[in-house]
Design a protein that fits this description.
heterodimer, A: about 160 residues, alpha+beta, five-stranded antiparallel beta sheet, B: about 280 residues, 5 helices, 10 strands, about 25% helix, globular
């Protein structure tokens, strides 16, 4: 069985040279301005959903082809990466982590469900997303396609799952 | 002859030192290290030098009005049972141009190596990028490695703006950038000792947000010790369509925003230094 690793670095995420030279290596040596803090802050603001979601992603990465015995494709790393980018833009600090289910086509489905609503997001591949929303109290549902803009999904997640 | 849109500023002595055009596509899981040799065979006559580098991480621009543009922690997925397929550089003899290939990227760089190296201009770079991408696609198809489906593209301009040796960093910033820097001089503490900035803008089309333009300026030293301000402009986003035409469409759009933003953020005095002629 394959073993997958997820490596993330929260503290260094704001390093501009790394982020902005993502495709190339700069040939300059930035002059560091920051010195080690004498009084570093003791609090961290990592969203509550982040760790459990990463753990689930690792589990999904470990699934190989034919993980269900019915010929399904291995979960696509591109789809998982895109799902994480999408969640980062839509989830609040205390929004519930989604259940994550592999799809037979290599995509991944994200699920939130409680007494008031259900939301399903299918990440088929990057920029190809299907969103289903059921309002249990109103008895209404709807489905729509999305690419990169997820404001409405963010509103719904915050209204029902935060 | 290269024709340039009349409303696009042009500089005869631009401070640009590196430009990168790139595309990220769905991972070609069947592309292994030996296949990269087959890809190199396509380019070896123009790019005879090679280098091997660690692969780049995924990146995607996504949007919502609830978390506008917050940078995500760096996350890297890695299968530990097999070594990562590297990113390879195919470099020309002058070392001024290169192609980069990995399982989910195809990039073309121009970089200034010596003082006499002139920027070949965007249009020529785009032609090299498009030709190379088609050749890469042909190898992928011939070897049955999957389909190349672009999902993100990026154009980056790196500028090195020299500072006078007796100039403070803040004085350099004030000379280069429009007057917003003057608001940073405080009654109690005076002029900042250090300054750097980063801003980002959303690139919108009729259909909604398409990508982002990132601008950063920070002090740096060249390898020879010269003090500079390193000004970086990066446009990244979804291709207009999931094919080469859509990638080129985004790169053209991104280049337009980069040139216009560079011009708007910098001073007329610097435009004269950089020989603005349009």
């Amino acid at each position: 069985m394959s073993v997958a690793a997820v490596d993330y670095d929260w503290r260094e995420r704001r390093s501009p040279p790394q982020r902005w030279t993502g495709f190339v290596n700069a040939d300059v040596d930035p002059v560091p301005a920051a010195r080690p803090l004498v009084s570093p802050q003791s609090t961290a603001s990592r969203p509550q959903w982040f760790e459990p979601t990463l753990r689930r992603i690792v589990e999904l990465l470990e699934l190989g082809p034919n993980w269900d015995g019915r010929g399904s494709a291995a979960v696509n790393r591109d789809a998982l990466s895109f799902a994480l980018h999408m969640l980062w833009q839509t989830m609040g600090y205390a929004t519930a982590a989604p259940s994550m289910v592999p799809l037979g086509n290599g995509g991944v489905q994200l699920l939130w469900s409680n007494a008031s609503a259900e939301i399903e997001v299918e990440v088929i591949r990057p920029n190809e997303i299907m969103i289903y929303y059921l309002n249990r109290q109103a008895g209404a549902d709807r489905e729509w396609r999305a690419e990169t803009e997820f404001s409405e999904l963010a509103d719904l997640l915050r209204a029902h799952f935060t | 002859m290269i024709t340039r849109s009349p409303d696009l500023p042009d500089f005869g002595a631009s401070p640009v030192t590196e430009v990168v055009l790139g595309v990220q596509f769905g991972t070609l899981d069947r592309l292994l290290s030996p296949h990269l040799g087959l890809v190199w065979a396509e380019f070896r006559d123009r790019f005879p030098e090679i280098e091997e580098h660690p692969p780049l991480d995924f990146t995607f621009e996504t949007f919502s009005d609830k978390a506008p543009g917050l940078p995500m922690p760096r996350v890297q997925f890695e299968l530990l049972t097999a070594p990562p397929t590297p990113r390879v550089f195919f470099i020309n003899t002058a070392k001024t141009e290169l192609l980069q290939v990995q399982r989910d990227r195809f990039l073309h760089n121009w970089r200034k190596v010596g003082d006499g190296d002139a920027y070949p201009r965007f249009e020529r770079m785009l032609a090299t990028f498009e030709t190379g991408f088609r050749q890469f696609e042909a190898v992928v198809g011939r070897e049955n490695l999957g389909s190349v489906v672009p999902n993100q593209c990026e154009i980056s301009y790196f500028n090195q703006i020299a500072m006078h040796s007796d100039q403070s960093l803040f004085e350099a910033f004030a000379r280069i950038f429009r007057p917003f820097t003057s608001a940073l001089i405080l009654d109690d503490l005076g002029t900042p000792e250090d300054a750097r900035f980063s801003v980002q803008y959303v690139i919108r089309e009729n259909t909604g947000p398409l990508g982002r333009l990132y601008v950063s300026a920070l002090p740096a030293r060249k390898l020879d010790g010269t003090k500079i301000v390193h000004l970086t402009l990066v446009a990244r986003g979804k291709p207009l369509s999931a094919d080469l035409a859509g990638v080129s469409g985004f790169l053209n759009l991104g280049r337009r925003h980069i040139v216009r933003t560079f011009t708007e953020l910098t001073t007329d005095e610097m435009h004269r230094v950089w020989e603005r002629n349009q």
